[in-house]
Design goal:
The chain is flat. The model has no long low-confidence stretch (mean pLDDT about 90). It has one domain. The protein has 2 helices and no strands. By secondary structure, the protein is mostly helical.
Amino acid sequence: GMLHLLGYDHQDADQEKIMFDLQDQILDKEKK
């Protein structure tokens, strides 16, 4: 996703969920 392109990574499923939730929050703000 977008955060991977910026150099972020996750080590497990919990971190993956946090990353994708953050990505969704960022993208939702950009849509407004």
